[in-house]
Amino acid sequence: MNEPRAAVIILNFNGKYFLETFLPDIIRHSLPYPVIVADNGSTDGSVAFMEAHHPEVRLIKNNDNFGYAEGYNRALSQIKAQYYILLNSDVEVTDKWIDPILLLMNSDSSIAAVQPKILDYQKRNTFEYAGASGGFIDAFGYPFCRGRIFNSLESDHAQFNDAREVFWATGACLFVRSDAFWQVGGLDNNYFAHMEEIDLCWRLKNFGYKIYVEPASHIFHIGGGTLNKLSKRKTFLNFRNNLTTLTKNHPPQYLFLKVLYRMVLDGVAAFKFLFEGQPKHFFAVLRAHINFYAWLPRILIERKKLKNTQGFKFTRSGIYRGNIVFDYFIRHKRMFEDLQAGFFQD
């Protein structure tokens, strides 16, 4: 059997409702490329549903909930394709959503990962939180997007319809070259979920690859299908994994000072949760830092291993040199176009 040029892989955990709702159109709009569902130990009848209603779809069964990172790594290790298309189960795709991105990736072998434009499933002319029209980070590792800074979501009026290089592409819908994915070690199993795509994209960039957004393709994302925005677990994972990503991938210059600065800002965020009557999130931030400190020896070993790998070179390319926290909360810059274009590293 010939290896398919691309394969769509949906990682599912207790997402039977989303499979019932979105899978038929995903299959229809993804032809001629195969759609594969990798189940992460669901207990809601997802596997029985797939076997009864979609026997034509290849089903990979993980025997436990390994999270986004390890769940995908286990599944992708069993799939042969030039391009992996990692797709959340809570996504509505559109006609010919795959073609523009594969056309872009085929035009430049240095482009390792691409995302489409991500719009909100409920508010369909509004960018969705998970990736909007391409992701960036600031000098201290805080992520934001074209079309979304913190919780401020912009309306889509074609202002970000250009295909361009970005810093990270969302894991909600991530096209990635399979050879580049495995060259950099795949997703970090330790992350479980959240920020793992930013870590992957930064490693790809450190190996000389480019990350792009191609808004000629667009999808609609519900978001929060596994962990909603109010989850203390999500707060824990976001803070821990963000610090880990910064420490693993940032060039050595000023890294120590930036991590110290992040500790101060994270402390402010923790007490903000406390004063707002959200003590569970306050303790989630504390637990994230304790976990990060426990991880630090392993993170530094991994950083050294990457540094010594052929083709690896720390880069700041695409990083916003400002402080997005200061810009947003103090200077009230709520839209991407308010940020200074010259502040992005070449």
Summarize the structure in words.
With 346 residues, the protein is of the alpha/beta class. The chain has two domains: 6-221, Spore Coat Polysaccharide Biosynthesis Protein SpsA, Chain A, CATH 3.90.550; 232-314. 38% of the residues lie in helices and 19% in strands. The protein is built from ten helices and 13 strands. It has helices spanning 16-30, 46-53, 67-76, 99-107, 178-183, 196-206, 232-249, 255-275, 279-307, 324-329; strands spanning 6-12, 35-40, 58-62, 83-87, 91-92, 111-120, 135-137, 143-145, 148-149, 152-153, 164-166, 173-177, 210-221. Strand 1, helix 1 and strand 2 (35-40) form a beta-alpha-beta unit. The protein is globular, with a radius of gyration of 19 Å. The N and C termini lie far apart (43 Å).
Give me a quick take on this structure:
With 346 residues, the protein is of the alpha/beta class. Strands 1, 2, 3, 4, 5, 6, 11, 12 and 13 form a 9-stranded mixed sheet that branches. It has a two-stranded antiparallel ribbon with strand order 7-8. A two-stranded antiparallel ribbon has the order 9-10. The chain is built from 10 helices and 13 strands.
The CATH top-level class label of the largest domain: Alpha Beta
Q: Outline the biggest β-sheet.
A: 9 strands, mixed
Percent strand: 15-25%
Overall helicity: 25-40%
What's the number of structural domains?
A: 2
Any idea what the CATH superfamily of the largest domain is called?
A: Spore Coat Polysaccharide Biosynthesis Protein SpsA, Chain A
